[in-house]
What does this fold into?
Amino acid sequence: MPNMPTLKPLPCGDTGTFALTFERADLATPIALTGATFKFGMKKAATDVLFILQKTSGSFTVTDAPNGKATFLLTPTDTAALPPGSYAIDIVIIEGDGTETSWAGTLQLVDHPSR
It folds into this structure.
């Protein structure tokens, strides 16, 4: 499983827009995103069974399909009730031909200045 790029820290309750480039395990070949669907999951720890947040393709916008580029959006309500800390995340892409590729990483939620 390829590593996900480091995501910028997000203040709890803010909008997070993340530009992502999806590549094969060789880290050179982009995954063409035409016809792809997406899944996002977040847990407090990678070993946890239950997700505290799940998102689907509606949270992703493909910006350059041939070159594997998309943006991912977290809305303020997605993180407003969560405490600051490090969270395990994963993204799964299901390509048009059914091929699934997964990425794992972390998202740092930081205290919102207005809390």
